């Protein structure tokens, strides 16, 4: 279990400097972004009472940080579970290089001959090769490989619900990343890096929270060796962004929810053979991402909670327990969805169902 960490200001009483044993429940565990602003602890209840008014403003500020960082953490974990269960790439081998890069040999399933053979909807599901990844970091890198756009599109509703009451503005940003700490690369069948790999683009959220601060929320940064979902915007922008890019038809889709809208539209476009596989992926993700939403509401209801914010605000230990429970439930429900889709649906019916979801 997590031991309480000694953080600046927590070891002595915020008011009288005596040894402190009572951390302020409101701001306990808030991340320390500014060494001048830290959470409060008290030696006894009378120091707490006496300091209450003075601490109130700082406490509020720190609580917003805490809720936001926790929301970012849960969103990222949900995305990892989602990618693991709805895994649509056929990976033949995983090779972790000495420098930490991860090489994948993939069956891309994208040559026309194979596509003509492939198209049963349920066969798109692949088993995620978690046991081949070696470390947790490499595992997350493989899960998020080229998944920035998936994160922004299919986590849209989760982001909306989890940041409700915390964020005042959310944007979707498409960018060209830089300063990779690690990379996931395609290997050819001889296990050599593939020539001419394309330039990678990435999608993230830019979030303004209610105290006016702005952050990058990057759920799929693990593929580049960055594992924290939340980074102050200026820091993210200067250290990790080569340039901001624009989407096709960007005016129509450049808003929060835009990427999902674009993919949902694509899921109905079966006009060309090239689009066929792509639209199946999108159709599947449309349905699967709705499971996330259903599970979240059902789980909250089961625990007699009305909003996820109540969970984010819990004391540390209870929060950790609830977080684990929710992730487990999401994993189970996604697995059930995969089984249902495998067993029940013939390809065309499945596709139709996916398009039905997408039209709602
Ligand atoms: Zn005191
Ligand atoms: Zn406080």
General description of the model:
This protein has helices at residues 45-85, 112-117, 136-143, 148-154, 156-162, 233-240, 250-253, 258-267, 273-302, 309-312, 316-344, 347-359; strands at 22-23, 41-42, 90-96, 102-107, 167-177, 184-186, 202-209, 214-217, 230-232, 241-245. The chain has 360 residues and is of the alpha+beta class. It has one domain (71-359). Helix content is 46%, strand content 14%. The longest helix is centred in the N-terminal third of the chain and has 41 residues, at 45-85. The strands form 3 sheets. Strands 9-8-7-5-10 form a 5-stranded antiparallel sheet. The chain has 12 helices and 10 strands. The two termini are 43 Å apart. Residues 13, 15-16, 18, 42-43, 47 line the site of one zinc ion. It comes from Hyaloscypha variabilis (strain UAMH 11265 / GT02V1 / F). This is Suppressor of anucleate metulae protein B.
Summarize the helices and strands and which ones pair or pack.
Layout: E1 22-23, E2 41-42, H1 45-85, E3 90-96, E4 102-107, H2 112-117, H3 136-143, H4 148-154, H5 156-162, E5 167-177, E6 184-186, E7 202-209, E8 214-217, E9 230-232, H6 233-240, E10 241-245, H7 250-253, H8 258-267, H9 273-302, H10 309-312, H11 316-344, H12 347-359
Helix pairs in contact: 1-11, 4-8, 8-9, 9-11, 9-12
The chain binds zinc ion (ZN) (2 copies).
């Amino acid at each position: 279990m997590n031991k309480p960490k000694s953080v600046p200001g927590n070891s002595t009483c915020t008011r009288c400097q005596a040894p402190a044993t009572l951390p302020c429940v409101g701001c306990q565990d808030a991340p320390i972004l500014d060494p001048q602003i830290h959470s409060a602890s008290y030696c006894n209840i009378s120091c707490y009472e006496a300091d209450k008014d003075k601490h109130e403003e700082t406490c509020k500020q720190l609580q917003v940080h805490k809720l936001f960082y926790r929301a970012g953490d849960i969103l990222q974990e949900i995305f990892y579970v989602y990618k693991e269960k709805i895994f649509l790439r056929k990976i033949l081998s995983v090779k972790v290089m000495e420098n930490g890069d991860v090489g994948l040999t993939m069956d891309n399933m994208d040559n026309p001959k194979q596509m003509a053979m492939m198209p049963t909807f349920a066969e798109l599901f692949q088993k995620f090769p978690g046991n081949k990844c070696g470390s947790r970091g490499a595992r997350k890198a493989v899960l998020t490989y080229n998944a920035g756009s998936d994160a922004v599109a299919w986590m849209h509703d989760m982001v909306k619900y989890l940041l409700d009451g915390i964020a005042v503005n959310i944007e979707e940003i498409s960018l060209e990343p830089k300063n990779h700490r690690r990379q996931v690369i395609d290997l050819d069948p001889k296990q050599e890096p593939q020539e001419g790999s394309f330039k990678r683009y990435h999608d993230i959220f830019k979030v303004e929270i209610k105290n006016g601060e702005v952050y990058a929320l990057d759920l799929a940064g693990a593929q580049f060796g960055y594992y924290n979902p939340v980074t102050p915007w200026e820091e993210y922008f200067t250290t990790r962004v080569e340039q901001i890019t624009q989407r096709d038809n960007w005016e129509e889709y450049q808003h929060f929810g835009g990427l999902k809208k674009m993919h949902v539209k694509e899921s109905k476009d079966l006009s060309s053979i090239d689009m066929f596989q792509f639209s199946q992926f999108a159709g599947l993700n449309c349905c699967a991402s709705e499971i996330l939403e259903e599970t979240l509401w059902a789980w909250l209801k089961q625990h007699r909670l009305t909003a996820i914010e109540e969970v984010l605000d819990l004391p540390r230990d209870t929060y950790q327990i609830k977080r684990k429970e929710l992730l487990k439930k999401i994993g189970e429900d996604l697995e059930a969805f995969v089984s249902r889709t495998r067993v029940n649906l013939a390809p065309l019916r499945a596709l139709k169902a996916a398009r039905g979801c997408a039209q709602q």
